[in-house]
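Task: complex structure prediction.
Instruction: return C-alpha cells for all chains below.
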Amino acid sequence: MSLFLVVALPFLGALLPGLMNNAGRQACAGVTFTVSLAAFIGLLTNLPAVLAGEVVMTGVNWLPSLGLNVNLMLDGLGFFFALLILGIGLLIITYARFYLSRDDNMGEFFTYLLLFQGAMVGIVLSDNILLLLVFWELTSLSSFLLIGYWKHLPAGRQGARMALAVTGMGGLALIGGMLILGNIAGSYDLSVILQNRELIQESPLYLPALLLILLGCFTKSAQFPFHFWLPHAMAAPTPVSAYLHSATMVKAGIFLMARLWPVLSGTPEWFVIVTSAGLITMVLGAVIALFKHDLKALLAFSTVSHLGLITMLLGTGTAFGAMAAVFHILNHATFKAALFMSAGIVDHEAHTRDIRRLGGLRHLMPITFVIATLAALSMAGIPFLNGFLSKEMMLEEANHTILFDTPWLVPTLAVIGSLFSAAYCFRLIGHTFLGKVRDDYPATPHDPGFGMWGPPALLVVLVVMIGCAPFLAEPFVKLVTAAVLGEAAEVPKAYFKIWHGLVPALYMSIAAVVGGLIVLTLFKPLLRVWDAAPRPEAKTIFEAIIAASVSLSRGLIHGLHNGAFSRYAAIAAVTITAAGYHAWSTGTIGAPTRSPQPAGAVEIAGWIMLVAATCGLVFLHRNRLLSLILIGIVGLMVSIGFVFFSAPDLAMTQITVEVVTIILLLLALNFLPNRTPIQSSVLRRVRDVAVALAAGGATFVMAYYFLLREAVTTPISEFHLANSYKGGGGTNVVNVILVDFRGFDTFGEIIVLGIAALLIYALTETLLNGPVRARLLNRKPDQPRAGDMHPMMMVVLTRVIMPVVLLVGFYIFLRGHNEPGGGFIAGLIVSIGVVMQYMASGFAWTSARLRYPYHGIIGAGVLIAGLTGIGSWFVNKPFLTSDFTYVRIPPFEKFELATAALFDLGVFLAVVGAVMLSLESFSRLARRAHVKDSEHPMDIDPSRDPADPTSPKTEGV
Amino acid sequence: MSIEVIGTYAVAICLLIGAAFALIGTIGLLKFNDSMTRLHAPTKVGTIGIGALLLASMIHAHVFADGSMHELLIMAFLFVTAPISANFIAKVNIHRRSCDAPPPPPKDDTWSTLNVPEADRELAEPEKV
Amino acid sequence: MTVATDFMNIAIILAFIAVALAQVLSMVRLVIGPSVGDRILALDTMVVNAIGLIVLLGIAQGSRIYFEVTLIIAMLGFVSTVAYARFILRGDIIE
Amino acid sequence: MGLELLVASAIGILTAAGVYLTLRLRTFPVILGISLLTYAVNVFLFASGRLSVGAPPILTDATVYTDPLPQALVLTAIVISFGMTAVVVMIALGAYLGANDDSIDDPIATADDQVEDQA
Amino acid sequence: MTHWIIAPVILPALLAPFIVLAARYHIGIQRVFSVAGVVGLIAIAAGLAWQAADGTVTVYQLGDWAAPFGIVVVGDRLSTMMVLLTSILALFVLLYAIGSGWDDRGRHFHALFQFQLMGILGAFLTGDLFNLFVFFEVLLIASYGLMIHSGGDVRLRAGVQYVLFNLIGSTLFLFALGALYAQTGTLNIADLAERVALIDPADTVGIRMAAALLLLVFAIKAALVPLHFWLPSSYAEAPAPVAALFAIMTKVGAYAIIRVYTMIFPPELDVTAGLHSTWLMPAALISLGIGMVGVLAAKKLDRLVAFSVIGSMGMVMVAISLFTPAGISAALYYIIHSTLAAAALFLIADLVRAGRDNLNLVAMPPVSGAALTSALFFVAAIAMTGLPPLSGFVGKLLILDAGLKSDAAVWVWAVILCSSLVSVVGFARAGSVLFWKAKSVEAEVGAVVAPAPSTLSYVAVGGLIALLVAHTVFAGPVYRYVEATSASLFAPDPYISTVLETPGKLSKPTEDKEEH
Amino acid sequence: MTRAFNWLFPHPLLTVLLTVVWILLQNDFSAGMAVFGLILGVIITKVTAVWWPERPGGVSVIKFLSYALIVIWDIMVANIQVAWIVLTKPNSKLRPAWIVIPLDLVQPEAITILAGTITLTPGTVSADLSDEGHSLLVHVLHTDDPDADRDGIKERYERRLKEIFA
Ligand code: NA
Ligand code: NA
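Output:
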C-alpha cells in the first residue's frame, strides 16, 4: 500500500467516528479499529521491502519553492515506529471501547485519536523535515484535544494547556532548528540531509540548530527540565495516557534524535547535552515516580525516567548505545502500554488509582495482577523479561561512557536510576496487588471482560517472548539500528542473549534490584523524608510563569492601550516628527533654487491676523462658541490668502465649506456642553505644548524648504495649462482638472460626500430608534432661549435673498468651466440658500412645504456622474472621457456643451443632497426635543387676523 | 484733463474715502464701551466704506477696461443684509443683558427677544461668553 | 496720467494698509469681547473688511476674477453672523 | 521678510496649534484641532505649487500662470475633509448623547480590566 | 478597448447609489443586489487576475488622458490578486452579514458595504498617488459608517477615536503628497519612479522626508506599532461582519508599502537609502510582539482577535521589510492567509456572542451550536497562530526562510517564534475558557436559550475556513503566483513603460481639437 | 389671463429683480442673456414661491424709488456725522439711548423696510420688535432728544412707507 495511504487513512478515517456517533458505540469503535487496521495492514505490505533493506520512498510536490513537499520515506526505523504506533493503536482502540463511559462522546474521542495517529505516522514516515514539522505540531494539537477531552475537569484543561505550551514551544524551536538544518544541507529532505554529516557538523550554525532541535525533542519527550508537563497530561482518559504519553507521542522526540543521529551525534556538544539530560531525567524521574501515589502518575514518571534512559543511550553517540536505545524503545513500549492499561483497569474497577487505597487486588483481579506484575517486573529489569535485556545493554554502555572526565559518574547514576526504577516497580506490585484484601475500595473490583484485559495481555506475551528468546527480536532490532545509524556507523556485532557471563553490568543489575527491594522496605521513612523535603513543584512554577506572563502582558497592553486618545495622538505626533527628523538629518541639503518674494505690510498684517486667530483659538478653546468664531476667522484668512496667491476657486470653496462646517458645528454644539473643562495637569499641557511645537517646527521647516526650491523637472501641470482649452474646452484650468483631467478624483470625492451624508443619516436613525430618543425628548436647553423663534425681518429678507442666492449658485455652476466656480461651489451655495430658508422659518415649516428626497439627490448625483463617465464607453473611450461642442440657439449667444458639465451636474447634485441630508439629520435630532412645529413662516406678524385662532401666541415658542 | 485722468483721481479718492470709513468704523468698534453703542460703528460705516471701495472698483473698470457693473450686486447685498445682522446682534445683546434694559413697549407686553418661553424661565441666567 | 496713476497707486497702498489695520483692530475686539454680541459683531466686521481687501486686490491687479469670491463672502458672512446669533438666542439654529 | 517665510511659518503655527488641540481630552477641541491641521495641510499642499501672486490659472492672454494642479488637489482635499468633519461631529455627538460625556477617552479599553480572569 | 479593469470600481460605485435610490426600504432587494454585485465582482476579478497572471500589465486611462497627466488604473499581478482576494472575502462577509441579520440592524448597510468595496478596490488598482488618497478616504469614510453601524454607546465612543486617528492619517497623507509633488512635480507612481532618479544627490532631504512621511501614512493603515492605536477598540467594537471585512483594510497599507517602496523608493535607491531599512523592521517586529502579547493579555474575545490582527500585520510587515523577492513573496502569501483567518475569527467571535451576549473570557453555560462553533474556533485559531497544518504555518515557514538571509535574522526568528508561542498560549486559554470550561457551568434555571446562529452564518464561516484549507493545499501554485508577482515588483520596467508610454488624448501629434 | 399671469409670476417684482441680478452677474448686457435671466427668474420664483405664500398688495414702485433716494441721501449725511462722533467724541460725552417707535405699519415687508432703513442710517439701529409686532425698539448712538428722533423717523420714513404699501 502506498505510504500516502498509510498516512492519510487515519486522517480520512477521522471523519468517520463523528458520523458514526449516532450509530452506537460499537459502530464508532469499530470503524476506528477498521481504519487503523487498514493502515496497519498497509504498513505491513511494505515489510518485505523494508526487510530487504530497501528504503521505500514516495512524494508529491506541495510547496517546492520552499522545499516543503509531501515526501515520505519508509526504512527500518520508520517501520519500527509506525508498527508501534499502529499496533498499539489497535490495542488502545479496543481497550478504549470498553473504558469510555456512556456519558463520553465516543465519536469525538476517536476522531481525535485518529488525528493523532495520523500525525504520528506522518512524523515517522516523513522524508521532508518541514513536513515532519507539520505532523509534529499536529501531534501537539491532537494531544491538546485528547488531554482536555474531559472538558469539565479543571485538571484536564490545565494539563492540556500546559502540554500545548511546552510542546508548542519545543515545536517552534524545532521549526527554527529544522530550517537551519535544511539551509545548511541545502535541502529539507532527510534523504539528502542524512548524507551531509560533515557539512552539517562543520557549519557554524550547527550548534544553534542542534540546540533548537534538542529543545523540540526534549520538550516532546519530557526530558529534564521539561519533564513536568507529562504527569499533568495524565488527566486524560487512560487510553490516551497509555497511547500518547507512554507508547507513542513522547517517543516522537526520541524518534527524531534517532532519526537525526547520523548527522547530529558524535560531537562533544551532542554528547554532553543529550547524555546528561538523559541521565538526570532517568534518575529524577525514577525518584519522583517512587513517591507518587497515583498509579498513572507513578507510571508517567517512570516513563519520564525510561525516556531519559533512552536519551542517554542515544547521547553516547556509539553504535551500541543506539542499538540499546532501539531495543529499549521496543521493550518499553510493550511493558509500559500494558502497565497503563492495567492501571486503567484498576481505576475502572476500583474507582481509584490511589495506591494508598489499594492493595490485595491479587485475589480480586488475578488476570490483571498477572499482566501488571509481569510488565512491572520487566520494567524493574528482572531476567526472562524483555526489560532486563535492554537494561543490561544500557548498563553495559554506561560502563563505557565517560562524562565530564569522570569515569564513575555515568555508571553510578545509571545504577541509582535502575535502583529506584526497581523500587517503584516493586511498590507498584506490592502496594496494589499484594497484601490483604481490603473492604474499603470505592467500588468492588474484579477482572474486566476480555476486551479490556486482552490488549495488555497480548503485550505481556510479547514481553515474555522477547525476554526469553531475545534472538527473536534481534534481527528486527538490528534492522532498525541500521536505519538509525545510517552511514555514520556499522551495526554492532553483539548478540542478544540473556546470559553474557559475569560482566559488570550483571553486578550493577543485581545491585539495582536488591537495592530496589531495600528501598521499598524503607519506603515509609523515606516517604516522610520526601514529603518533608522542600522541592520545586514544576506545575506551580509553570503556572506562576504563565500567570506572570499574563499579568506582565496585561500590564503592558492595558498600560499602553489605556483608551486615552491624547496619548495615542501624542505618540503618533512624536513618531511622525521623529521619523521626519531622521529623514532630514540623514540627508543632504543644497542651496535654495528660488529666491523669496518680498512681503509688504498688508501681507504681514494678514499673517498676524491668521496667527492671532490661531493662537487665540488655542488659548480660548475652552469657550466653545468663541473657538468656533475664531476658527471662522482662520478660515476667512486662509481664504483671503488663497485669493492673494491666485487661487480664487480655492478661496470660494474654502469659505463656503467653512460656513457649512460652522453651521454643522453649531447644530452639534447645541447638544454639547458649551465649555471644555480644565482636565489636564500643567505638566501634561507642557508636554502637549512641546509635542505641538516640535510638530509645528517640523512642518515649518519642511514647507520652507520646498517653497525655496524648484521641482526636479517640469511639473505635469504644464500639460494641463497647455491642453485645458484645447482638450478640455475650458479656460479655468483648475475646474478642467477637476472635471476632466482628474475627474476620477472628483468622482471619488463626491462619493465621499455621499457616504458622509448616508452615514450621518443612518446614525441619526439609529440614535432616534434607540435609548437616545428618550433622552432627547426630555432634554432641556442649557440656558434660557430668547423669544421670537422666526424673526420677521429675517423671514421677509430671506424671501428676497434666497432666490438671489439660488440664482448666484446657478451662475457659479454654469461658469465654472471657464471662470472660478463649478458644481461643487454651486452646490454649497444652493445648500446655503436653503439653509437660510431653514434658519428663517424653521425646518418644520420649510420642509412641510417643499421636501426634497435628499437621498435621491445624492444617488442621482453619483449616478449622473458615473453614467456620464460610462457614456464614453459607447464611443469606445475610457471612463470619464469628455467631449464638448459649441452650439448656437437664437436668441442666445453661442455656448459650449460639454459632457464635463454633465459630470459637474452630478457633482452639484451630490453636494446639495449630501449637505442637505446631513443638516436635515442634525436638525431631526433637535426636533425631538421640541413638541410644537410652527404653522407660520414668522412668529410675529401684525398683519395676521387677530381673530384667527392660529395667530401667534404671546408665548415665545 | 482727460476722462481717464479724472477717472483715475476718482478711483483714488473713492479708495481713500472707503478705506477711511472702513478704518473709522473699526475704530468705533474698538473704542466704544457698550455693546449696543459698538454696534453702530462698523455696521454702517463699514458698509459705506466698502461701498466706496466698490465704487472705486467700478470706476477703475470703466477707466482701465471695458466697464463693470456687477459691484452693484455686492453693494446691494451688503445693504440688504446689514440690517438683519445688526438686528440679530442687537437681539443677542438684549438677550444676554449686555446692554441697558430697553424701556417697555407702549403697545404690547414685552419685546420679542425678552419673551422667553415659559419652560426656560427657571433656567439659570446664561453664562457670559 | 502718470501723476494720476501714481496717486492712485499710493491711494491703493494706503487703502490696503487702512483696511488691514481695520482687520487687526476688529480682531482685537473679537478677542477681548467681552460680550458674545461684540464678538459676533467683530466677526461680521472682519468679513466686511475682507471683502474690502479683495476688492482692493482686484483693483491693484486690474483683475475681475475676484468678483465671485467677494460676492460669496458677502453672502456667507451674513449667513454665519445670523447662525452665531441664532445659536445664542435659540440654541438650535434651524429649529 | 519673504512671502515664503510667512506662509511656511503660518503652516507651522497652524500645525502646532492643531496638534495641541488634538491632544485635548474632549471631542470638541480635538475636532477643532483636526480642522486646524486640515488648514495647515491644505496650505502646505497648495504651497507645493509654489507661491505666485496675480497669476490665477484662468487662461487669458497672460503668459505666466500659477500651478493649477495643487489647487485642484486642495479643492478635493477640502471637500473630503468637510465630509469627514461632518461625520466625526455626528459620531461624536452620537457618542455624547449616548453616554452624556464628551470625553474622548475610550473607557472600553480599560473596562476590559474589570472582567474576571478565569482562563 | 475593454473596460473590465475599471469595473471593480465602477460596479460597486454605481450599485451603491442604485441601492440607495431604488431599494432604500427593502432589505430583501438590497441583499439580492448586494450579493449579485459581489458575485459579479468575483467573476470580474478572477478574469482580471487570469489576464494578469502571465505578466501582462493593463493600463486604463481615465478620461483618455495619458499618464502622468491624467489618472490611470493599472492591473498587474499584484493589484488584481488583491482585488480578487477582496472580492472573495466580501462574498463570505456579506453572506454572514445577511445570515446573522447584522445588515438589518441599521440603515444603509449594503450601500456602505458596496462603497467600502469600491474604496478598497480602487486603492488597489489606481496608479496615481493622489487618487490613492481619494480611495483611502472613500474606504475610510465607508468604514466609519460600517463601524458604527447599528450604533450603541460603546461602539460610538470607539468610533470617535477611530475616525479621529484616521483623520490624522489622512492629514499626514496630504503632507506627504504635497512634499512629493513639490519635489517631483508629478503624482503618478510610475512617473515618480522615473523622476526620483533625477534628484540631485546633494539635496536629498526633501525626497527623504516625503518618502518617510508616505511610509508612515501606510504604516498607520497597516496598524504598525506605534501607529496602531486606532485598531484594537475599533475592530473589537465594530459589528462582526464589518470587522471581518476590515481584515483586508490593513492589507491596503501593506499593499501600498509594497507598491511604493519597491517601485518609487526601492531599497537600492541612493537618495532614500537608510530610511525604511532602518526602522521598518524593528517596528514590524515590535508590532508582531505587541499583537501576540495582546492576544495573551486580552480578557475579551473580540479584543483578542483584534490584537491578533495587529500581530499578523506585524508578521506581514516583517516579511515586507526584508525587501527581497523571497520576503515579498512570503508577505503576499501571508497577506492572503491572515486576511481570511482574521475575517473567520471575527465572524466566529460573533457566533460565540450570539449565544452569550458578551465576549468576556469567562465561562458561561454552553449555548446552542457551541460544538460547531468551538470546532471552527479551533481551526481558525490554528490558522491564526500559525500552527500546522494550515496556511499560517506555511506562511510562517516562508517568512522564517526568507528572513534567514537577513542581517536581522536572529531577531526575526526570535520574535516570530516567541510570539507564536505566546499567541498559542493566549488562544488556548481563551478557547479552553469559552468552550471547555463552559461545560462545567450549569445554565440558570429558566434562562432563555438563544437560538443557534443561522445555517448561512455557518456557511459563511465554513467557506472562509475552506478557503484557508485551499490556501494551504494549493500553497504550491499560490506561491508560484506570488513569487512571479514579487519578481515583477523587483523588475518594474514593464509596469513603468506600459503606464508611461501608452498614448492618450492629445499626447498623439495627429489629434487636435479646436473651437469651430 | 390673470390667473395664468399669477401662476407664472407669483412675485413679479422678484422675477424682475432676479433678471436684473442675472444681467449684473454677467457684467455684460445682451438680449439673449436677458431672456435667459428672465427664464431663470420665472423658474426660481416659481420654485421658491411655496415659502412666500402671501402675495403682498400693490406696491407703488415710483414712490419706492423716491423713498430709496431719500434714504441714500440720509445715509451719506449720517455717515459723516457718525464718523465724526467716532473720531472726536470721547465715550464719556456720548449719550446713547433706546427709543421706542409705536408702529402704524402692519405688513411685514413694510416693517422690515422701515427697520432696515433705520439701521442703514448711521446713528440708529433697529434692535427688536415687540411681541405682537406693534412697536419697534431702536437704539440711538447719540441723542439729546429721543422723542424728537422718534417723531423724525415716523415722519420721514414710516409715513412714506405707509403710502408705498397703501
Ligand atoms: Na450647548
Ligand atoms: Na442707522
